[in-house]
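Justification of resources, computational component.

The compute hours requested in this renewal are based largely on the per-chain cost of generating structure records like the one below. Each record pairs the submitted sequence with a full structure-token output. That output is archived, and it is also reused by downstream analysis tasks.
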Amino acid sequence: MDIFIQQIINGLILGSIYALVALGYTMVYGIMGLINFAHGEVVMIGAMVALTVIKLLESSGLPVFIVILFGLAAAATVCMAVGFTIERIAYRPLRHAPRLAPLITAIGVSIVLQNLAMLIWGRNYHAFPPILPTSAFNIFGATITSLQVAIVLVAALMMSGLMILINRTRLGRAMRATSENPPIARLMGVNINQIISFTFIIGSALAAVAGLMVSANYSIAHYNMGFMLGLKAFTAAVLGGIGNVAGAMLGGVLLGLIESLGAGYIGDLTGGFLGSHYQDIFAFFVLIGVLVFRPSGLIGERVSERA
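The structure output for this chain reads:
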């Protein structure tokens, strides 16, 4: 029973990260109908920038909270600038092009960002400095650290804040209007280009937070870390219903639980033939299953009703 509870806890932590990254995919798709396959690399850049700043300030004598805050602020700033640049240079000129052109461009941008990160930070893995508290709590035989509690709480606050932004603010109304009918939104005075840029910026800020969470949780960062994470987050968005913000949150948490439970019990289920290092296959089994049996996702893609 304690193994089951431990895997549930691990799944919630992993799912919180997936959900934050999936929100970037689903917001861009909801606004533009575009899958931004470079979003995983934005997460990677956030992790690398945060790690670099934290290492520089590690011996400064500042409190740990302030060091982490500086790292997060730097990562968010850089990621938002990267997201804005990607939209302005790579995607905006192709907004009315055939769907295949932006897709190929997104893959190309992903490769470019990976190689730029490799040139800047190198091919080696970068360890997260041991500055975070290591206190742990016992829950029915399972263990959770204070860092993991902070990851879940921060992710929940970020997702709640995003829901409030989308549903209760003027910017959120403009985003919803642009998503439902861009020409009519433009006639009503909404600056479509500005709203799309804001969508990329917000998604990139969430990616920066997720990047710091990943590097802190696993104590490591690498220039190629965003590729698999991005694919899994995209799977989470499809699972919940691509284009649906609440669906991305639900899909992220569910995928984290499925992957964690699968990794914990795959050895027993296969008689030791497969081990926990095969946990990545569950995301793609889920993706195949959703595309075959429920392409619109669990909650369903948000499609506007038109007269």
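The longest strand covers residues 136-139. The chain has a mean pLDDT of 88.
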